[in-house]
Amino acid sequence: MTRPRPGIRIVRERPNSEPLVSIIIATYNWSSVLRLAIHSVLWQTHQDFEILVGGDGCTDDSEAVVQSFGDARIRWHNLSSNSGHQTAPNNAGLRLARGRYIAYLGHDDIWHPDHLRTLVAAIILDKADFASSLVEMIGPLGSNYREVAGIHPSGGYRGAKGLPVSGVLHRRDVVSRIGEWKDYREVWRNPDVDFEYRGVEAGMKFVS
Predict the structure, then answer these.
(1) How many H-runs (helices) and E-runs (strands) does the chain carry?
(2) How far from 157 is each of 99, 110, 117, 153, CA to CA, in Å?
(3) Which of 4, 33, 59, 80 could form a disulfide with 108 if both were Cys (CB 3.0 to 4.6 A apart)?
């Protein structure tokens, strides 16, 4: 509570080496909150990352918002048409990703400054394929909605309930083993839950 507010760190020249973490942010025409999401990445205590912001056929000023940060680690790409779900821009981001690990951030979500540092440490220490963090979901003013998720027993995640994707980090090679996110029109459960559960079915290790 007494620590100083984290500051924004801007990198003007693109690093020569590949990043440790590729962060994928899928977005569609909500640039005001997108700015806050990106801001919360730039204030991370762990700074070895790239940010891949994928527009789902955006027609607003989202690209201009992304470029306004002036950070060489941020890349913008926009699908030619709207797919109606984060699956398509997430998959586009996976194909562009260069990091050893992949993290996801919803365009209307924000991270604690130690989010990446904590997840990277956990996945390395446990030699895991997936790591998940505690996520607090807060409803609109007056709704009295609060939910905490993302933490599972030490015995491992079993897929009974999906892990909030903004709290998930996984090895990039997971995708070559279980495939990309599946189209929401082709699966009976949410694509993020489906992706995570396919990791369970493949015997992958989860840590929270």
Answers:
(1) 6, 9
(2) 24, 24, 21, 7
(3) 33
